């Protein structure tokens, strides 16, 4: 799991005050630190809690965890967030009702206990995302250059194909005219009389015989 997917930091607004939510995501669980101006709370959402909430909401565990990660990784207008009486809640607004989609117990951390520094984490995430963007830019540049090369090769191939088709067509027409000239020169109708039921007439070929040369139209 990438760093920006394994760790998220989100500012969320509750009815009483804004909070900063630091979440460390795992495959079927997560740990969270909740910061306000003075205090820090710590909580854990276990796989057993995931199983229970997903069943209550008639969702698969995968769908429920996806929705939970989505609503806790960004401020959502269709959700309410609340830190109250040792529990952190996230509730989805639906029509005129509110559905509790999840909650977890949290404990107030003692100032003496080491805790993650939010500023350091944000700086690390910013550095990681900057490197990720630079990698995307390099990949995009490489793909763009490859695209231009493929486009140029394709245009050259199409031009070569058209030229070859023209050359082949010209050779075929030249051969056809040669054969028709030979057939015309051997025709018994030297006066240019048009034979309606002849095989050449069926092909739409007219034979004209002149005193100077024979020409196929």
From TrEMBL:
Q: Which UniProt keywords apply?
A: Coiled coil, DNA damage, DNA recombination, DNA repair, Nucleus
Can you tell me which residues the record assigns to a coiled coil?
Answer: 126-153
One Pfam family this sequence matches: XRCC4
Gene Ontology biological-process annotations: DNA recombination; double-strand break repair via nonhomologous end joining; response to X-ray
List the Gene3D superfamilies.
1.20.5.370, DNA double-strand break repair and VJ recombination XRCC4, N-terminal
The XRCC4 N-terminal domain covers which part of the protein? 19-96
Entry GO CC: DNA ligase IV complex; DNA-dependent protein kinase-DNA ligase 4 complex
What are this entry's molecular-function GO terms? DNA binding
Q: Does the keyword Lyase apply?
A: no
Location in the cell:
Nucleus
Q: Which family does it belong to?
A: Belongs to the XRCC4-XLF family. XRCC4 subfamily.
What is the protein's name according to its record? Answer: (African queen) hypothetical protein
Protein's organism? Danaus chrysippus
